[in-house]
Every structure is written in C-alpha cells, then in structure tokens.
Specification:
Strand order of the largest sheet: 3-2-1-4-8
Number of helices: 10
Structural class: alpha+beta
Order of helices and strands: HHEEEHEEHHEEHEHHHEEHEEE
Shape: elongated
Number of strands: 13
Strand content: 25-35%
Radius of gyration: 46 Å
Distance between the termini: 89 Å
Helix content: 25-40%
Largest sheet: 5 strands, mixed
C-alpha cells in the first residue's frame, strides 16, 4: 500500500544529474560535441569472471583488453595504466549485463513523480520479484503521458548481494567504479546503481563547480525577475493592436463568407428548381406529338406536375402506351372508366399522368433527336 506519510529522502545529486541531462538538450549538438570531447570513459563488463574494458570518448572507442578478476588481472591493469597514463583521468563505469540485473519500463500515475523513488520502493514487490531492501535500484522518467495522467518510467534493479559481491571483488583487485549503469552510452547514462559505500569521496573542485552553477542559475533567475516592466507592456500593446486589426479583418471575412453562402444557396435552389420542375411549354408540345390526329382534346388541367387530359379517341387504351413511351410522362393511367359516345362513335377518356422535365433526364427525349 502506498504510504505518502513517510519522510521524503531528497537526493540532491540525482536532481543535479537529471537537471544537467535536461539542459543538455538545449545545447547545440556541435557545442555539446566540443564539451564532450575531453570526457573519457572506461566501460567495464563482467563475463564469466573476466573483465572486458573499453576506452571511449565522443570521437574514439578503443578496446583495452580482458582482465581476469584476480591478482594477475590487477597486475595487467597496472601495466595498462603505466603504458597509457591518460586512462587514470577516465571515469570508470561498471555496466551490468541483462542477465545481471532487471530493467523494465512501467507506468505510474503522474502524481507520483514528486516522490518517485519512495513510491517505487513501496511498489517494488509489485513490479519485481524482490523487495526494496533486497535491491539497489534507480528510476527515471522517460515520458509524460499528459492525456492519460500517467508517466512512463524506466526502472533498473539489481539484487544487493549480487552487486555487493561483484563490487567488492572489483575494489579488491584495483577497480574503483564511478558509476554502475545498464547503458553503454557515456552521453546517455540512464541509471546510477553504485551503492553509497562504494562511491569515491567527492573532490573539492566538483563541489566548487556545483556551487558555481547554482550561483549562475540564481543570477539568471534574478535577472529574469528584474527585467523592465515597460518592455513587457510594450509587447502587450503591440499584440493588442495586431489583435484589433485581425478582428476587423475576421469580421469582414465572416460577412463575405455569409454572403457567399447565401448566394450559393439561392443559386443552388434555382438550379435544382430548373432541373426538376417540368417546363409547361415542353409538356404541351410533347402532348401534341403523342396524341394521334384522330384524337380530340376538350379538357386539360395541370397542377403540381400532374396533368389531366379529357377527350375522345377511336382507341383510348392506346393513348396510355403512347404517353408512357415519352420521357415527358410517367405513371400514366385512366382517371375514370372509358365510355362510348354514340353520336360520334368515339371513346371518351380522362387520363392522368405525372409530368417530367425531360431536358435533364438521363436519356434525352426522343423528340429532340
């Protein structure tokens, strides 16, 4: 269970390492390369009782050889230092191999970032098969997932008895590591697993540099706090003028946009009306073509695209097929039964049909060919 009432163990050195790593991204790559050029590193890995040593700088990588973890290996290392005195100035990093430690990435609530080490110590048995007092561990934030309210952290864990045994052997035979890490990149050291009792005493010049950096940082903060307020007000005034100009232009653009939308709507309505609404002259012209010469019309009604014609014809039933064959009419049918006019010997009919705008039909009107 998470216990937030425990005292916080403030690790100032871890904070400085994190701060320096974050500020390094602000330094141009060329300048960072110049600064790193004079920082040598010796990386050690332990494989089957043999130490493999590699000398590295930002521009050089040179294997130093394999040294057994015994008196013979100590003598060989001493001879190596005598042959290359610059190795004494290099920082010694003991890199743990994957089978010597446990490194994994986990997600935690964003609120745990302030007390990350304490939270990880309480939750150690949930993420690893160990308890916190059985291990040396280090943890760092690698990503902040703001949308999910979480952070992704990288955890490195090594059992205390295993690391203590290896470090005691290293120190006994002349190797004094400055760092214990799981990364082999000297510019991106991710963890510091070296126990406090194995660390070298701090040098005074490093402390002076830390104090100097703190003074410079405090001076910069003070300078930022004492900047003339008139300069800020001038920027604000300029921004307000720009906002006013932009607001006026935005209103004009919005007005033009609304006018354009209104015109588009009106034009679209007219075009749709023209495309779908039948033209009465075309309907009458087509009706005169489909009606045979021996057929008489004595009544015609047109309303809401519905055409009703009355008249007499020798064969009223043939008129239905003739009108349906025209692209100007559809759904043609008799409105009332057909009757016989005794005096003229013709059939009286009343036909209703739906008028169509054949000019915009998929198949052009046959009468227009």
């Amino acid at each position: 269970m998470l216990q937030l009432n425990q005292p916080i163990d403030w690790d100032f050195r871890s904070f400085l390492r994190w701060w320096a790593g974050e500020l390094a991204f602000l330094v141009p790559s060329r300048v960072r390369a110049l600064l790193d050029r004079g920082t040598p590193w010796i990386f050690l890995t332990w494989k089957d009782g043999v130490l493999e040593a590699v000398y590295r700088t930002s521009s050089e990588e040179r294997p130093l050889g394999n040294f057994p973890a015994d008196d013979q290996g100590r003598l060989e290392w001493q001879r190596c230092l005598e042959a290359a005195p610059e190795l004494r100035e290099a920082a010694l990093v003991f890199r743990l191999l994957p089978d010597q430690c446990l490194a994994r990435t986990v997600k935690l609530p964003a609120a745990t970032e302030e007390n990350l080490r304490q939270v990880m110590a309480f939750e150690m048995d949930r993420f690893t098969p160990f308890k916190a007092d059985q291990t040396y561990f280090d943890v760092r934030v690698v990503e902040r997932l703001k949308a999910a309210g979480q952070i992704r952290v990288e955890l490195a864990v090594v059992p205390r008895d295993r690391l203590d045994g290896m470090l005691e052997t290293l120190v006994a035979y002349g190797w004094q590591p400055d760092y214990v890490d799981v990364s082999d990149d000297p510019r991106q050291r991710r963890q510091q697993l070296l126990p406090e009792r194995f660390r070298k005493p701090r040098r005074n010049w490093r402390r002076a540099i830390n104090i100097g950096l703190a003074v410079v940082a405090a001076s910069l903060l003070l300078l930022l706090g004492l900047l003339p307020p008139w300069k800020e007000s001038r920027w604000v005034e300029q921004l307000e003028n720009e906002v006013k100009k932009a607001s006026k232009s935005a209103k004009e653009v919005e007005s033009l946009r609304q006018q354009a939308e209104q015109l588009t709507h009106e034009i679209g309505y007219l075009l749709e009306k023209k495309r779908t609404e039948p033209i009465v002259l075309d309907v009458l012209n087509e009706l005169s073509k489909v009606m045979p010469d021996d057929t008489w019309l004595n009544g015609l009604q047109y309303k809401d695209r519905r055409l009703i014609v009355q008249g007499q014809s020798p064969s009223a039933s043939s008129l239905i097929s003739r009108m349906e064959a025209s692209p100007y009419f559809k759904n043609t049918s008799f409105v009332s039964p057909v009757t016989k006019d005794v005096s003229s010997n013709l059939e009286r009919f009343q036909i209703a049909s739906e008028a169509v705008n054949a000019r915009f039909a998929e198949t052009p009107a046959a009468s227009e060919n």
